[in-house]
Amino acid sequence: MTAFAFSTVANIVSEPGAAARLGEIVRERFPGPRRALVVTDAGFLRTGLAELPCLDLQRNGFRVSVYSGVVADPPEEVVMDAVRFAQQHDVDLVVGLGGGSSMDVAKLIAILATGEQQLADIYGIGKVSGKRLPLVQVPTTAGTGSEVTNIAIVTTGATTKMGVVAHQLYADLAILDATLTLGLPAMVTAATGIDAMVHAIEAYTSKHKKNPLSDTLARQALDLLSKNLIPACENGSRLEVRQAMLLGACLAGQAFSNAPVAAVHALAYPVGGIFHVPHGLSNSLVLPHVLRFNAPEAAPLYAELAAIAVPQASGSAEARTEALIAAMQQTARITGIQTTLQQVGIAESDLDRLADDAMLQTRLLGNNPRNLTRADARAIYAAAL
């Protein structure tokens, strides 16, 4: 058996309503800290869903500060503003309460608020040194899996992003509470859910670090997500469906944190960075075309996943791969999200720029089961147009 290493968060609580007991749960695990920073975005704050978690933190002896300046694809200035806010309030525990962007900013605050390192010094893999503040993650969407990953993405320019990857970014505790996701619009539910499915699919076919644990998590994640995504979009008030989606996204996050994602994400990043398309939707737009490109190398593995997502599929590995691709396309159509690049404002004249940017994603492309050239990238974008 191939040797492998596997890392994840130390504690996970999966329970509807757990966020209302946030202070109690956190105090049990962290008896020392007294000054909690809740990191979220203005939109989630307006829902009122942050009130109960903050009140319970206060009931359990925490002085609570709230930073709500997070925006999608957070730029460096937002990260540094959040770090300064944390330092001004002398916080000693950080809670990420939101989607992937809020949780990524929370990770970086926990590292940088100590003042031991600067943001520019930690981009890349394994550049974080020293201690961080205690970190709790509470996702409010079922998609990114950021609550259990060791990566944070920062927008560094008009269209460029950088990642911080280090074991210190794994949270001490992740809380999965579907009551926080009940108000998500169907379009957001669909895009973030497909993002999580991409995490499972790409982890299962990751070229270098695929392993038995990540495989098991990816399969279970795809099972939960494929069964519950459309019901969650059709009736978002079903708590058991929402909780299954959260757990699926979490398992997929654990899988791809150890068996990293590949060309789907590499080609999605320029779509999001240049045209400001939400990350999950960017993934969904290129997914079927990357799967079809990878099929000559990855069809046997895609066929195994088809047995989970499309159990009625039969025939050769290639035929079952096509069934998986068709199922993903059908899911996008049923949920009503855009299915072509043209629908998000991308024209044929943009494809060269997209291809050029995609080829800069060397960290991701190296994980792809099939080698991909610039010409291949452009052809995939053309097929997605």
Brief overview:
With 385 residues, the protein is an alpha/beta fold.
Structure write-up:
This protein is an alpha/beta fold. Helices cover 52% and strands 12% of the residues. The strands form two sheets. Strands 1-9-6-4-2-3 form a six-stranded parallel sheet, sandwiched between helices. Helix 7 packs antiparallel against helix 8 and helix 8 (212-234) runs antiparallel to helix 9 (239-258). It is globular. The protein starts with 10 loop residues before the first strand and ends with a helix. The mean pLDDT is 96.
What keyword list fits this structure?
385 residues, 52% helix, three-stranded mixed beta sheet, alpha/beta, six-stranded parallel beta sheet, 9 strands, globular
Element layout with pairings:
Layout: E1 11-14, H1 22-29, E2 35-41, H2 42-46, H3 51-59, E3 63-70, H4 76-88, E4 93-98, H5 100-112, H6 119-122, E5 124-125, E6 135-139, E7 151-155, E8 161-165, E9 173-176, H7 186-204, H8 212-234, H9 239-258, H10 263-275, H11 279-309, H12 317-335, H13 351-358, H14 362-365, H15 374-384
Parallel strand pairs: 1-9, 2-3, 2-4, 4-6, 5-8, 6-9
Antiparallel strand pairs: 7-8
Order of strands, widest sheet: 1-9-6-4-2-3
Shape: globular
Oligomerization: single chain
Backbone structural class? alpha/beta
Report the count of strand segments. Answer: 9
Radius of gyration, in angstroms, nearest whole number: 20 Å
Give the termini distance in whole angstroms.
42 Å
Mean pLDDT: 96
Helix content: 40-55%
Main sheet makeup: 6 strands, parallel
Number of helices in the DSSP assignment: 15
Low-confidence stretches: none
- Percent of residues in beta strands? 5-15%
Series of secondary-structure elements, N-terminal to C-terminal: EHEHHEHEHHEEEEEHHHHHHHHH
